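Re: the request from the purification team.
They wanted to know what the chain is likely to look like in 3D before they choose a buffer screen. I agreed to run a prediction and write the result into the notebook, where they can find it.
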Amino acid sequence: MSHNPDDYYKRSEVSNSDLTELKNLLHPRLQFGDKEEAFRFGSLVDAIITEPVRVNYYQHTVDDVQYTEEEFLHAREMHNALRREAQSDQFLAKVLELAETQRFMVNKAQKFEYGGFPFTLDTRCKWDWWLGCFGGDLKTTFATTQKQFDEAMDFFDWDRSRAWYMDIGGSNRDFIYAISKKNFKVFKKFIVRDDAIYRRGREKYEELAFQYWCLNIT
């Protein structure tokens, strides 16, 4: 496993992020907030929790990306909120103790079917946490209630990403832990293959995967 994110992001296989970019091109919609800033801050929180070797607390950097002291304090408080949650959540405690972090997987010629039409794509994904036979994702969110978090699952297509990851990893379970940027609450969602979240997410990714395949026929 490499701690260099370029080892993953420079790969050519199709990722869930590629599907998101395609969706934004085909179906543009109003963006709320600064997407690049949200990604930048989320990357800081991810690194502190899952890749601390990349973090310099004295210079306030992750690799060569500079952050402010205030951003670091905010991110560390979110990390503390997750650790406090783990004191009463035994599953989360085991995840933080035992999970392999930032594990990426590649499936060559993964099989898909859309509208009865079979096709293949080379695919990839990168897990925040991997527990040997299933894994999960860490999110930062502006949600302050469980209801808002549930709505974010659909709006930001987190259901699609989890179904995509489950099918690349061949796993039957999945989970998300999300930390609120606003009030530091921790929200969680557990997904099981063929439940409503998985089915909705798979339906989303199959349509986009087919559109991606059509646009890249050579």
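For the purification team: The mean pLDDT is 94.
Please add any questions underneath this entry.
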